[in-house]
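Good morning,

Attaching, inline, the backbone tokens for the sequence recovery test we're adding to the shared suite. The designed sequence is right after.
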């Protein structure tokens, strides 16, 4: 079985937000090439965390329809920051409108505003 690049450790709903703690596997082989000696969690993986958390919470697979904004503010080094807190605000009808951040403590790694659709 291949190693997962990340695992959703737990998720809760607090003050209208979906909050998840995600562990990033610094030993995953992707970091051997991205980048040797200075691992960086790829932006697409950070975006996938948001989708997977939301899909798990909603109990249905989701697909990205539109990405309004996506800002990567700090490098997410899995060795230095093996845990990331993902905060997601969303409205769900036919479309799932999302505003999300990934951070640890006061360090914000990314911010995303996106629209997902159910598969």
């Amino acid at each position: 079985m291949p190693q997962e690049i990340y695992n959703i450790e737990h998720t809760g709903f607090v003050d209208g937000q979906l909050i998840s703690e995600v562990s990033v596997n610094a030993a995953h082989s992707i970091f051997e090439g991205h980048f040797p000696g200075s691992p960086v969690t790829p932006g697409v993986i950070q975006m996938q965390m948001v989708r997977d958390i939301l899909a798990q919470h909603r109990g249905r697979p989701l697909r990205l329809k539109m990405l309004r904004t996506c800002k990567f503010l700090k490098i997410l080094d899995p060795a230095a920051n093996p845990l990331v807190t993902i905060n997601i605000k969303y409205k769900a009808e036919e479309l799932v409108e999302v505003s999300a951040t990934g951070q640890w403590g006061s360090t914000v790694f990314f911010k995303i505003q996106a629209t997902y659709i159910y598969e």
